[in-house]
Amino acid sequence: MTADTDTSSGWASRIAGGLRATSDRIAGNLGGALGALGANRLTTEQLDNLEDALISSDLGPRAAARIRAKLADTRFERGIDETAIRQAMAEEIAAILRPVAKPLQITAFPRPHVILVIGVNGSGKTTTIAKLAHLFTEEDYAVMLAAGDTFRAAAIGQLGVWADRIGVPLIRGPEGGDAASVVFDAVKAATAQGTDALIVDTAGRLHNRRELMDELAKIRRVLGRLNVDAPHDVVLVLDATNGQNALQQIEIFREVAGVTGLVMTKLDGTARGGVLVAAAEQYGLPIHAIGVGETMDDLRPFDPDLVARVIAGVA
């Protein structure tokens, strides 16, 4: 999945629409936070209000403090206005996001490159797997899917529908079966067929963390016996409408599953997209891609500069 530098009006406008709730919230909060402007530097009171406005917009206290510090050090030579503040904010948000913008790459040798995809039920995990598979096949990689969420028959069925639609093989087992056995069979099949990427769905139930932890640990042991470097990526899918709750999921899954990177889904008009910035500043995990809808082309590699401009309202 290579970096997408396409910031054409189509994708940019969809990102703007997806992050509208966040940018509107910042705009509304800024309106009451700044008071009289026109000097060369922001006052302590204005900085305090700006920091509160950013926290209220889901950017989180750490990112808000960093942006506040940047604004405190900024001398606005032409005088302060809201546009200048937004531009300075966009630059610092981009500085937070750029280090974590890392598309998923198929690098493993020997093949396959194994990607475990995790996330709570309802996060868009299964459709994200399909979209990742589509992106890889568009780059001429051979892809296989594994239905490792054996707890839910619906998840197995849904993944089967997507696999047929994309035209990639799916390894599955019975509902309630052993997920590690499915993964074992998938790795063996992918190796035999010379598959480049094996994308594995996993259970997303968090009400019993011990059960989930045991299952993921068993999958890892099985993978390790077949390929000491697998899994090569453990990707957590997050629902952007959850706001700060997404950060709690990162904390849990990082402990339970050893998360190596993130995909943010459901960046629609109701999304609380400021959490992208909060996650980047707090955890520093790679953000591989973001999704704005349900179709195959609605997931693309994460563009930090575009997202920063949209959040700050200068796109």
Task: Note down, in words, how this protein is organized.
This protein starts with 8 loop residues before the first helix and ends with a helix. It has an eight-stranded mixed sheet, with helices on both faces. The longest helix is centred in the C-terminal third of the chain and has 18 residues. Helices cover 50% and strands 12% of the residues. With 315 residues, the protein is α/β, with parallel strands linked by helices.
> How far apart lie the N and C ends?
25 Å
Major beta-sheet overview? 8 strands, mixed
Morphology call: elongated
Number of strands: 8
- pLDDT average, as an integer? 89
* Helix content estimate: 40-55%
What series of H and E elements makes up the topology?
A: HHHHHEHEHEHEHEHEHEEH
Low-confidence stretches: none
Portion in strands: 5-15%
Number of helices: 12
Give me the side-by-side strand order of the main sheet: 3-2-4-1-5-6-7-8
Provide the gyration radius in Å. 21 Å
Overall structural class, as computed from helix and strand content, comes to: alpha/beta
